[in-house]
Amino acid sequence: MSYVALTPEDRELMLASVGVDSMEDLFAGIPAELRQQAQLDLPAPLSEPELLRHLEELAGQNRSARELTCFLGGGIYDHFIPSLVLDVTARPEFKTAYTPYQPEVSQGLLQAIYEYQTMICELTGMEVANASAYDGATATAEAALMAIAHTRRQRVVVSEGLHPAARSCLQTHVWSVEVEISRVGLEGETGQTDLAALEKALGRAGRPDLGNGSHGERAVGRPFLADDAACVIVQHPNFLGVMEDVEAICALAKQAGALVVVNADPISLGLLKPPGDYGADIAVGEGQPLGLPMSFGGPLLGYIACTEGLLRRLPGRIVGATTDGLGRRGYCLTLQAREQHIRREKATSNICTNEALCALAAGAYLALMGPQGLRQVAALCACKAHYAHAELCKLEGCEPAVSGPFFREFAVKLTKDPEEVCRALLDRGILAGLPLGRHYPQLADALLVAVTEKRTKADIDALVEGVRSCL
Amino acid sequence: MPRTVFELSAPGKRGVRLPTSDVGEQPLGELLPADALRRDPPALPEVTEPELARHYAALAAKSFGVDSGTYPLGSCTMKYNPKVNERVAALPGFTDLHPYQPEETVQGALRLMRDLEQMLCEIGGMDAASLQPPAGASGESTCLRIIRAYHDSRDDGARRKVLVPDSAHGTNPASVARCGYEPVTIPSNKRGRVDLKALRGLLDETVAAIMLTNPNTLGLFEDGILEIAAAMHEAGALLYCDGANLNAILGKAKPGHMGFDAMHFNLHKTFGTPHGGGGPGAGPIAVKEKLAPFLPIPRVVERDGRLRLETDFPESIGRVHGFCGNFLVAVRAYAYIRSLGAEGLKEVSETAVLNANYLMAALSAFLDLPYEGPCMHECVLSAESLREKHGIRALDIAKRLIDFRIHPPTMYFPLIVKEALMIEPTETESKLSLDEFLAAMLVILDEAQQEPETLRQAPHTTPVGRLDEVKAAREPDLRWKG
Predict the structure, then answer these.
(1) Is B272 a domain residue?
(2) Is A269 in contact with A289 (CB distance < 8 Å)?
(3) pTM here?
(4) Which end of chain A, N or C, is surrounded by fewer C-beta atoms within 10 Å?
(5) Overall domain count for chain B
């Protein structure tokens, strides 16, 4: 296939007009030895019907969540996507545009992002939001770097309830800039962040309990000075699905002069108190549940919102409203003095391309849902998750792994190896959940189950029946 | 301006109806702790679906994509995004996959990832690849971390400087700083290439790497690349290729052969995936064998005929994305490469380079040409003489192009060219559309002399004129407050 629009005659005419004899003359600046070995060894080109068939074949080698019943969560959820969301993001004027550096021809795109920023602020109770980050994991790392820059402190305190991938991303982002990470474990009983350990880690009561380092995380060897933590990072509800005592966490952090970064699931905010209400300084999260398909984990949508005082530390694009010469309202990218194309090495971040189209999808999703719809989605998730939890825990050999309150996702302890249970359930066409031993060795006998509004009573009953048959 | 979605809102309107609960309606207070619930629902708009459809249709009409018209935005490679690639990326077998599904249920996805990695290695002349970085800048910082881990692994951790040409993209020095390195600027010579003598003078045991875009941001091939590579390697430093300009050299030269040790690809530039109004893109990386142990996790590995995502690489720099990078972007890029093949990709680069030279040859009669050609996939011209003679700036020319339904070129970049206009037509433009672009430019350059005010006030055909960006920054209005 070819998408090139020049005919052989065009090429001849244009080469003549440039003043060269052949195409090769245009590439003469490349050393000959490089050109001689540049031949590409790639599969033969495919026509459109062949390409479609080939990709359909590859897609057919996967078993998607349309075919399987999905109780997998752990940061990515199988929520319903309204049709209009797909229509909005398919519009070529949005989809095939570049970052809106030229506001006069990008008013629609800019306004849509401005509306997205507003809705994220409403959802999180924060004052300002950016136009997106790559995903929830990298948004969390960006938030840590904001806190480090703002407080000029070089240590971040992280709850083990934060998504393991977000912790790993955080580690990757900070190891090269001499920042230490202190980890705070979860209480075995409730599954909530251990507040006593948090207090220790904040430097108020000597050295924290460090636990064993998992991949890439370095054990921290020296005693901490009091008040040297830049921020506390907590996920709410946390990776085990458990709702944290966020108010107590905020209070401890504030006493130590640390900022609070809350990684909050956006659907949960249809029901739960927004981070701004309990004093978070930065709210981040994974926006995928807001109208994006699971997509094998990408593209996703990292949202970042913060207090006004942190505005100039925000990474990435921000859209603002202003006026033109005639006083007409218009939108443009603003506060660009934070950004790499202006500030180069002094920029708040290196981010350039972000996830604009995913932000557009989230904006359309939130507008379609409205306050009542979002609340209904969240309530359906909570109801169905609690039903599933209750039914599962009626089974002999299945009990709650932790006692803390949960929203859409919960951990249950099984008397059989969860990996084995998942394999057996797959034979019944069910993705039963995530065996937690992969991420939390102390929970090797636990399964993390997510229940979205898409799951029916029949789906849940089939899950329960499947688990029962394994135990 | 169209009303904001908040102004369409009225209490009680709904855009979506959901089924009621089939597991009973337990009061929320019994399910969730009362003090954890929000007092007021979020103040989201309340609109109907038809209203919202019109709202977005109106916003789309005030936006401009590659499908809307010529988009010669230098450095951004705004080429056509094939529709079939959108179609395959929407297959449920790709979209409805959970990243934690068991490997045996995602063999097709893993095969596509593995094959795309191999094809990118072939195109880049590299040995191993990772699709993890979700954007070009992420690819840059990932490669720099790999370079740092490599030096550390050899107890050579005192290397802290990274050389960056003065013509480089802003993301380069920003990525350097992100990795705890110090950027050191290398000047360009009179030919617009790296000043080799200055480079040699900077080399010592404190230099970790050089970041080069080749062809560089002036659209010129760094023809001293083999000498640069030899000098860097002799000094114990590595070479990183910013792949932003790869569209010029597909099948014409491979970064790996030039001496680069690591590189990133912009799938949303070279491989025709849509830019999405600023993302999602994807910034896969590829490296030489010696750097492979440090690639981010997870990695796609084949064992006993079964593909797996593995994380057990003790020397890896860790994760750079929550899951597997921007998979659906990878699907589109895979489809692009499979549909064009080796000859098709070479034709892409040849056409992109011919188109850029065609414009440069025609425009250099009217605008300053700071560096002699031939250029590669883009050309950089300067409006400095026009500014001196008529007070017309690059900005004025760019804004006036909008009235001809042509997207402005990149302006004021690279920084080393005064009043820069950076034009990248890509292979997408036909001779007809290039000639229309030139015709528009001729009208504009005539206006610069005859009626300069028309240019200074441009654009004239858009819903708003030039915006007060100073006000936008000084009095930030970043959300609708009603």
Answers:
(1) yes
(2) no
(3) 0.96
(4) C
(5) 2
